[in-house]
């Protein structure tokens, strides 16, 4: 049995070694940090993440330019900085961090695109924690959310049903078996498949890292293992059960990647089940703590992170080699350029047209409607007066659906936007972050997120931000009311306590985060995405690399590992020379042979 387990994990062990190499020789080469490992950086959004662009601030003799300062860009840049590389990160927004940035309005601090992560990040021995500790110099602590970290609710008229998702595979499975006693086979098979997908991630990672030719061989070898990436969630689950409620419960987190079950790949659903299998966590001090610490790591190596720095073009010479970027009519040169802003923006907007013949495959691939995301989001930022305990606000998320049939709910809403929102997500960052109330006493914040179709907002995209006209304001008011109704339905104690409300729409996301057509999760997580061989860190333009959520998958963890993959692709030779660090290897071994309480059973 033990032997079988070992054999089953050989690919994963190899993955561990390969990915471990991502953090490579950095400890050896690492420059002495000015920030003590145990010093937590001030948890206010620091000026260090708001340094405006000017040519005077650009360091000389850069090793690399990274476009975009989200989780992908930060991970890659920190890894490179720790290898002694001088990295310039250019961010178009006025604060670094991408989806991990936070902002303040009327004395309330709001997060944007990190509401929870899993991956056992609370355990210092885990792989994800190792990565975060590594890139932030141990600068971020993680707070566990409630043991029941998500509740999935259906509401239809006055009828309300819920399913509580508890931490731990054993607990999750036993709750499913209690609720669906006749579906034991389907539930057992589902967990086996989740495990299978988790193991076959090895092939996905290898395909991304290997040179194109070897990548095809890996795809061929791993073909049978990758089957579950190439089927929709609905195709797989309807082969296990006809119970629509069970399917609805197993796919309640479709909003985390934006594809309802009939469109999303089963693999992304399974990876999320695995990711949150041992509970959910939130960064102490808020998500901005990540950029606050990473920027220091980059600066310690002589690099810089500059904001209000929209890159308009990547400079490519006549031999098809990238050698710099253009920004505000300035040209900055570096031997390596990495774009983390998504494949569409990189290939369609930043590569000069006279170089498009080199990226035909990418441009053609992007035309496939199956790699365009199905849905976008709107985020309602709510400022609340009062004490979290008195208001009885939980440290968990709530998902509210009109029924368990997510595809049907989406189809109805797409046809007629006045029909019920197909999903609403509610979370209280002020409760999840134990330091929030020290910074903002007597204040709470809720984030209420609902799906939105980009097409419904597209006509306002070119109008001036904060001044898009009455029609847009009315549309926002209508959507705000619907999200607020949902908030009050679930938390009636909040009525009369609201001090601040603002709604971000898909066009706001495009403006603030440089998204493409409201694609907050990047390219679609459909089966088609996992068949795009061109979606990888290397590109046909020499010295130009991709990173971030389009490289592997969406999510903070997905984007961070996108950063790791790009680091491997850029400096494989250095890695091979210097070997793998002990800490990384220990974390990989922990991940591969986790203690019993963390295992899928
Ligand atoms: C509302 C919402 C909630 C989410 N909740 C969670 C969650 O709870 N847990 C989780 O794991 N994931 C969550 N996600 C997903 C997660 O935030 C993303 O997958 C991840 O942060 C993507 O990281 P990235 O580095 O690829 O891209 P981004 O974070 O988008 O970073 C790209 C950066 O590039 C910048 N940029 C764009 N164009 C240019 C240009 N031309 N020049 C310079 N800079 C440019 C952008 O401004 C941006 O800062 C959420 C996302 C959203 C939108």
UniProtKB/TrEMBL annotation:
<comment type="similarity">
    <text>Belongs to the carotenoid/retinoid oxidoreductase family. CrtISO subfamily.</text>
</comment>
<keyword id="KW-0812">Transmembrane</keyword>
<keyword id="KW-0472">Membrane</keyword>
<protein>
    <recommendedName>
        <fullName>Amine oxidase domain-containing protein</fullName>
    </recommendedName>
</protein>
<dbReference type="InterPro" id="IPR036188">
    <property type="entry name" value="FAD/NAD-bd_sf"/>
</dbReference>
<dbReference type="InterPro" id="IPR052206">
    <property type="entry name" value="Retinol_saturase"/>
</dbReference>
<keyword id="KW-0285">Flavoprotein</keyword>
<feature type="transmembrane region" description="Helical">
    <location>
        <begin position="12"/>
        <end position="28"/>
    </location>
</feature>
<keyword id="KW-0732">Signal</keyword>
<keyword id="KW-0274">FAD</keyword>
<keyword id="KW-1133">Transmembrane helix</keyword>
<feature type="transmembrane region" description="Helical">
    <location>
        <begin position="551"/>
        <end position="576"/>
    </location>
</feature>
<keyword id="KW-0520">NAD</keyword>
<keyword id="KW-0521">NADP</keyword>
<dbReference type="Pfam" id="PF13450">
    <property type="entry name" value="NAD_binding_8"/>
</dbReference>
């Amino acid at each position: 049995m033990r032997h079988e387990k070992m054999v089953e994990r050989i690919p994963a062990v190899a993955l561990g070694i390969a990915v471990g190499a991502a953090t490579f020789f950095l400890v050896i080469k690492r420059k002495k940090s000015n920030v003590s490992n145990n010093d937590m950086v001030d948890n206010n959004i620091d000026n260090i993440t708001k340094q405006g662009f000017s040519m005077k601030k650009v360091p000389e003799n850069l090793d690399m330019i990274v476009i975009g300062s989200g989780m992908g860009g930060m991970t890659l840049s920190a890894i490179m900085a720790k290898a002694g590389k001088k990295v310039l990160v250019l961010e178009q927004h006025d604060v670094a961090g991408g989806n991990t940035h936070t902002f303040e309005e009327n004395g309330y601090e709001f997060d944007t695109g990190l509401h929870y992560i899993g991956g056992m990040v609370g355990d210092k021995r885990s792989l994800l924690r190792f990565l975060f500790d590594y890139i932030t110099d141990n600068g971020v602590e993680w707070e566990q959310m409630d043991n029941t970290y998500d509740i999935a609710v259906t509401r239809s008229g006055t009828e309300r049903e819920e399913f509580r998702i508890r931490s731990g595979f054993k607990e999750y499975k036993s709750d499913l078996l209690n609720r669906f006693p006749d579906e034991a086979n389907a539930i057992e098979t589902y967990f086996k498949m989740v495990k299978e997908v988790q193991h076959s991630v090895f092939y996905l990672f290898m395909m991304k890292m290997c040179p194109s030719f070897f990548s095809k061989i890996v795809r061929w070898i791993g073909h049978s293992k990758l089957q579950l990436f190439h089927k929709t969630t609905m195709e797989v689950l309807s082969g296990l059960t006809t119970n629509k409620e069970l399917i609805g419960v197993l796919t309640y987190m479709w909003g985390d990647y934006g594809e309802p079950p009939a469109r999303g790949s089963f693999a992304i659903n399974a990876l999320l089940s695995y990711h949150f299998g041992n509970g959910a966590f939130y960064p102490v001090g808020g998500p901005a703590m990540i950029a606050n610490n990473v920027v220091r790591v980059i600066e310690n190596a002589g690099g810089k992170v500059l904001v209000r720095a929209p890159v308009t073009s990547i400079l490519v010479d006549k031999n098809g080699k990238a050698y710099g970027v253009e920004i505000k009519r300035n040209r900055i040169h570096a031997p390596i350029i990495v774009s983390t802003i998504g494949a569409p923006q990189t290939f369609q907007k930043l590569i000069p047209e006279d170089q498009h013949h080199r990226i035909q495959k990418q441009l053609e691939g992007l035309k496939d409607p199956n790699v365009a995301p199905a849905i976008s989001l709107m985020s309602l930022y709510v400022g609340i007066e009062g004490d979290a305990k008195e208001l009885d606000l939980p440290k968990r998320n709530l998902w509210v659906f009109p029924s368990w049939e997510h595809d049907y709910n989406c189809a109805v809403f797409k046809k007629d936007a006045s029909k019920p929102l197909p999903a609403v997500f509610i979370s209280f960052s002020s409760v999840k972050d134990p330091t929030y109330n020290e910074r903002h006493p007597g204040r709470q914040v809720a984030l209420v997120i609902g799906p939105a179709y980009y097409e419904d907002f597209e006509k306002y995209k070119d109008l001036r931000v904060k001044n898009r006209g009455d029609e847009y304001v009315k549309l926002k008011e209508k959507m705000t009311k619907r999200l607020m109704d949902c908030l009050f339905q679930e938390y009636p104690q909040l009525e009369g306590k609201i001090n601040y409300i603002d709604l971000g729409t898909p066009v706001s996301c495009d403006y603030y985060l440089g998204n493409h057509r409201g694609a907050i999760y990047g390219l679609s997580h459909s089966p088609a995405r996992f068949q795009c061989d061109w979606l990888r860190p290397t590109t046909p333009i020499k010295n130009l690399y991709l990173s971030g959520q389009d490289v592997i998958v969406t999510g903070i963890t997905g984007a961070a590992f996108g950063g790791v993959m790009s680091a491997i692709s850029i400096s494989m030779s250095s890695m091979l020379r210097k070997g793998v660090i002990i800490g990384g290897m220990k974390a990989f071994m922990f991940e591969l042979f986790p203690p019993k309480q963390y295992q899928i059973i």
